[in-house]
Amino acid sequence: MDGIMEVPVRRQNMGRKKSEVLVPEMAVPGFTLGAFILLLLVSSVANYPNGKVTKSCRGMIPEHGHTPQSDPPCYISVSQMTFRPGEKIKVTLSGPPFKGFLLEARDENLTGPPIGSFTLIDSQVSQLLTCEDIQGSAVSHTSPSNKAEIKVYWNAPSSAPNHIKFLATVVEKYDIYWVKIPGPIISQPNVLPFTTPKATIAPMPTLPPVSHLTKSFNASDCGNKKFCIRSPLNCDPEKELACVFLSFTRDAKSVMVEMSGPSKGYLSFAFSHDQWMGDDDAYVCILEDQTVHIQPSHLTGRNHPVMDSRDPLEDMAWRLADGVMQCSFRRNITFPGVKNRFDLNASYYIFLADGAADHGRIHKHSQQPLITYDKYNVTGYPENVGGSHSLLLLKVHGALMFVAWMTTVSVGVLIARFFKPVWLKALFGDAAWFQVHRMLMLTTSALTFIAFLLPFIYRGGWNWHAGYHPYLGCIVMILAVLQLLSAAFRPPLHDPRRQMFKWTHWSMGTAARIIADALVIGVICC
């Protein structure tokens, strides 16, 4: 565990007398490997869209939760209007600068999967997607940088239908996009040109009405008529600008929800079966251009919420004044057959969060969300409850891992590396440096073992939604145990197996330190 390999001593002639000088015989780029792993662990994946939009292949609709625009400014052009199987057709998507796009070829009736495949011309701005198990059947952006023109080749398959229509979805910014922009219809030779049947223009979908609140929410009925969650506990949304407030008032078949907090960008809350993000029924109020949008959503893992239809919400209203954002809506207690809307007759943990937003896209909250200490039924007896932004067991887990892998193990490694040749005085039967080193490493292992157990006690088992952290934590724990076992069975100094022990002990110790330090720093930074 010490991460230090014992090395032979080389005797050098120092003038007229000889002395022993410790010279390392190898140099392992552990820092480089550690930095690489650390970058992988703490790099953010949620700041910019990367075009990996295979989930939207079928409907070509971005999961942004906004209404698509009409009258698209972009258009699709092709190099020729006829094609033969196996032939390549150049396809160009152009218009005013846009950030994202999705380009596909379909049959003329827009039924079935994408047709054919594409070949990239510039892989810096475009990439191929596998849509509906057809490799390269769609093209999307690689970054959110502005682009005004995209050129690709479409490869006609051997079993192509008589007519092909190109479609594109274009995103100008997060809340402004056009869906299924129609392009030209190309046909095989000796086939009658496709004639578009006269279509009935469907009206644009209308959103539920939203009104303005005339006065601020109040907490006077909390615990009497309202079920309330507040941070800080017992704060007053009428008088305290920093008060984050959530209330539920039940009537016969529905619940009236009120939410208030600082107007940083968004407020949100979620019902959850556990105290971890993932598979949750969530609701978001987003500030955009001095307007508050109220949006139901659902959470999948630790990703951005997926915005859902506003149809389940009624009586939506909002208010923006004095640096405070407030929103309210009504939802039914039950939604039979609706997957992402929970039955409010049951009890749930409740998450309450706020953070920044840009053009309708929410950013990661700057602090951990407030989570209730227990499950509650918001349609039951009115209560006034609080929660915590960081639960005690997880705080202790983090503190123990920090002390173990940033303090005791580091001091233990320094003792072994620099004090070994000079701190040779016997202490309890062994060299002093070795006894101190061993004590520090045993302390590291003990702290790691205690910290390892705490998340399991808190969670009541394994958490399948916590990402890479628990898996790498298990690796650290296994390496720590193996280090203890290898040290316990260390061969004598002149045993032929001693060299193998040195390498094994050094390798496992270094690997454990790299992974543990990366996890600790990753949690602190992200």
UniProtKB/TrEMBL annotation:
GO CC list: membrane
Compartment(s) where it occurs, according to its Swiss-Prot or TrEMBL record: Membrane
GO MF: oxidoreductase activity, acting on metal ions
Keyword hit for Zinc: no
Keyword Glycoprotein carried by entry: yes
CDD domains listed in its UniProt record: Cyt_b561_FRRS1_like, DOMON_SDR_2_like, Reeler
GO BP, sorted A to Z: intracellular iron ion homeostasis
Listed cofactors: heme b
Primary subcellular site in the record, as a coarse category: membrane
Functional note: Ferric-chelate reductases reduce Fe(3+) to Fe(2+) before its transport from the endosome to the cytoplasm.
Family as reported in the entry's similarity comment: Belongs to the FRRS1 family.
Protein known as: Ferric-chelate reductase 1
Name of the gene encoding the protein in the UniProt record: FRRS1
